[in-house]
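Hallway conversation turned thread

IA: we were arguing at lunch whether anyone had actually written out ABC transporter ATP-binding protein end to end. Turns out nobody had. So, for the record, here is the sequence (314 residues) and right after it the structure tokens. Reply here if something looks off.
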Amino acid sequence: MEPILEIDGLTKIYAGGLKALDDVQLTIKRGEIFALLGPNGAGKTTLIGAVCGLVRTNGGTIKAFGQDLTKNWRSARAKIGLVPQELATDMFEEVGRFVAYSRGLFGLPSDPARIEEILRSLSLWDKRKEQIRALSGGMKRRVLIAKALAHEPDLLFLDEPTAGVDVELRRDMWKLIGAMRERGVTIILTTHYIEEAEEMADRVGVIRQGKILMVDDKAAMMARLGRTEAVISLVRPIAELPSSFADYPITLSDDGTELCYRGGDGSGKGKADVAAITKALTLAGIDYDGIDVHESSLEDIFVDLVEHSEGETA
């Protein structure tokens, strides 16, 4: 299947010399949810702006729906939706009229039934006559999502869509994103809430200082980079580890009361190692009274990747 978005060698250097995008290579599959993770200033919003025509780049190419955006901008942009990070809009406009107007911007005819469907799905129907300025921050963000959906895009960018909203609204948006995917919409999501990526994304990309550090299927990334950490509390301190533990990545605490294991590969090997270690402790006559096991989350992997890349560039 042809990719819906292909980015090749994209570079953006601002007037002050800041390189916001550095030779970015990225391909997005049709129908997937792709999460782009990175710290503040990593280049996430700049990358989205480049695809949506809001940022002029210094080099590289962008193809969407098989078309070069520099040559077929208008037809391709009509298939792209954007929910920006900033709440910049006409605060005195009524919700319903604001969302409906967006269809006309892309040359689509009026469709009150479709607008009603979108507003109801976002719990905005009862607010359709209210001015946007009267809404809460979370509801304003819903209005931006409704506006982005009004022209029925095939590719949707969500730039921090749940920033500043409460947990209930965030969960509602997750459900909405899942429903959009079921209708075949491809979604690219940036977020500071890494649990959102862990919950919804098919693939994950990590960006730092304008460079893509890694792109992979979420499950494959977890399996390859995930780790198991375990702390085993001993009943009595020991002076050194028995030789039978030499094959395991274990360290003994300075006071001899804890064994610390960090290993595995995210595929279950770590848990198997911990089980084998506890069995070996029993055979060696070493009593323990507590085990604390932690499996890496996507957030742990993300932090490790970013910190490692910082060390390389320091």
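OS: looked through it. Residues 74 and 106 are 9 Å apart (CA to CA).
IA: good, adding that to the notes. DSSP finds ten helices and 14 strands in the chain.
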